[in-house]
Specification:
284 residues; alpha+beta; four-stranded antiparallel sheet; two-stranded parallel sheet; 6 strands; 43% helix; elongated
Amino acid sequence: TIQALADYADILDLHLNPKSMHTGPRAPVIAFGGSYGGMLSAWMRMKYPHLIAGAIAASAPIGAFPQVANHKIDGSARVLAHGLQQSYPPDKKSDEMNHCLKNLRATWPLLTWLLEQSKNTRQDSSEDNDQSVEEFLQKTFRLCEPYTETSSRPLLQFLTSLWFDLAEGSFPYPSSYIPFALLHKKVNLPAWPMQVACWDSGLYQDWGVEVDGDVEKVRYNISYGDSNLTLSVDWDKIRDFSSANLESVMNSTDVAGLLSAVREAVSVWHNVTKDVSCFNVSDA
């Protein structure tokens, strides 16, 4: 980004609007853009005010970074958290408790733990479970292809990448704007798609998840209902200090409900065409 700004400044200063071309003041230059381009526009005006007379910056969250905002978690994560906590539709209060944010926050450590167990059981052939982690993940998330060791990163990407897109497209009416821009498909997301993902999937329900600790500092413990599993999260480090075993987790009603709800939630985006019977995570 810094280099891009400097390049724009050089183009203006040395080529498009050099002092040598003018006997008087330089022609005023206005920068404009949207999304990342809007951020560049705003930063150009801030960093090179002698070259840029003004900037029109649309959808440009320049204050959304930890180093400039007074928060440890970046602005986009805080905005997503706010959206996940809303009722459906957001302008009407619901009498039901919304556990969507807590459930989604608990999903990523759980999946990381399961993927680690998958690697461990492949190395330990003495493990004797009714089903393997690979079979459990393929069935739970309706994967088209059998789950393999190389599927772990694509699966996490498949489940995490869409939430920002749902937030961007969370209009109070059906819209094809974000699907067309990102997927090149002329299909509509529903009105309030982020809230639809929470409330129509069952992700808002209580699946026995309990979070204890400092969420802002990303240091907390998560327990998973009837599975007896408790995980400790410290940013990207996850430790299991419970007595739960793999079979009890895979047979847990709460874990099954949680992960099935996540699958239905991500279907709002990954099955926006309403014709997908199984998911190919490599396409995410």
